[in-house]
Each structure stands twice: as C-alpha cells, then as structure tokens.
Amino acid sequence: xxxxxxxxxxxxxxxxxxxxxxxxxxxxxxxxxxxxxxxxxxxxxxxxxxxxxxxxxxxxxxxxxxxxxxxxxxxxxxxxxxxxxxxxxxxxxxxxxxxxxxxxxxxxxxxxxxxxxxxxxxxxxxxxxxxxxxxxxxxxxxxxxxxxxxxxxxxxxxxxxxxxxxxxxxxxxxxxxxxxxxxxxxxxxxxxxxxxxxxxxxxxxxxxxxxxxxxxxxxxxxxxxxxxxxxxxxxxxxxxxxxxxxxxxxxxx
Length: 253
Fold this sequence. Notes:
The chain is of the alpha/beta class. The protein has a single domain, classed as P-loop containing nucleotide triphosphate hydrolases (Rossmann fold, 3-Layer(aba) Sandwich), CATH 3.40.50. Helices cover 42% and strands 15% of the residues. It has 10 helices and 7 strands. It has helices spanning 16-29, 44-48, 60-65, 90-96, 106-111, 131-139, 151-170, 190-203, 217-225, 237-252, and strands spanning 3-7, 34-38, 75-78, 81-84, 120-124, 142-148, 176-183. Strands 3-4-2-5-1-6-7 form a 7-stranded mixed beta sheet, with helices on both faces. Helix 1 packs across helix 10 (237-252).
C-alpha cells in the first residue's frame, strides 16, 4: 500500500521542507517511487527542487480547484523524484475550497489516481492549521512532525496534536503518527538540550522521537543549489545518515 506522509507543523521555520525533500531522496535511493507534493502557498519545496514557482503555468492549485479531470501537473524525475509543485496561487484555494462539496476530501481525490504509481507520497504542509493542512491530513496514511528544539515550539505541539486527533476522530480514522523529528538542534546549547529531553519525555508515548536534526549551514546551502543535500558539495554525512534512518523507519510502518 502506498504510504502518504504529511510533513506537518503549524509553525514555520521548523525544517518541514528540508525534511520532505531529503527524506524523499533517501527513499528514492532505496529504489522507491517517490512523489513530493507541495501544498504550501510559499512554494518552498518547489523552489528547493530547483523550479521557479512564478514561471509555472499549472500547479497543484489547478488540480485542487478543477471541476473536471485534467492532466496532473507533475514534473517527472526531478532529482530522482516526481514533484507536484505549488506557487502563490495556492493561497486562493483556502477561500475557493470553502464552497467545494466535501472539501475535506479534495486532496484525497486528487491523489487517488496516483496511488498505484508511487510507493511514497510526501506532502509538505503549510505552517498553519487551516484547510490546506486539514485536507493533507485527510489524504494521508501517516503524519511526521518536525519540531524545533525550543520551548515555545514544544508548547505549540498541543494544538497540533489536537488537530491530528480531530482528523482521526472525524475524517481519517486510519491516520497514524509516524513520529517526531526534533530540528534546529545545537548540541552546545543547554536550552536545546533541555528542550530535546522534554520532547522525548512528553512525546515518546505518542510516537517515535527520532534523533535530532542539527543546525547546519549545509542545509541552507542545499536549498540554494535547488537539490537534496546528498547531491550538493560539502554534504553532511551525519545528516544524511539521519535521513536514511528515518527512511528505514518509514519503510517499516
């Protein structure tokens, strides 16, 4: 069965896009067919993959609001993965979907014809608890939560978990938590160390807490190159090993 994984946190700047791109690439190295879905109007994933959002004629926005079947605007074999891109027009979908019948299931309907073509579909969610995040969770089999190693970020996890629980209760009973990925971690920062320990204490009972993703200039540089970290100069072997560990965990779910 295809695993559809939402990379979800209502906070911005927690490495959702970095996680989606690099986890997807590691899964592709394991010979899996991977589709990345950018459902954030900021289109960071689209940019990270080397595309210019403003130049795109068709994006996931068109697939979501179309009233009839149209060719899916998928970009094939981008760094070994396929990409369903986004641009700023996706911001309009928040309002337009309000009037769509069974709007909560719209992304699920869009992805349904693609399930036989992929082993993993990774959805890069926007930093909000709005309709775009909701339809992503409804369309998913699992949710992976990057969480910044800061106390404020940990406190915000309550709202995130309530959103996931509400979707599980009413719209997608089969949705499972794939785990939590602590991010932006500095081993030399005592506050980060304490927050990481709190994340482990509070969230391990809910889902796997993966080893932390460290702060690293290599990640920012990879975004500038428009490629996964593994394809960039100066790649960080420790970070690549972490994403490979997460990929192995996703395979076993």
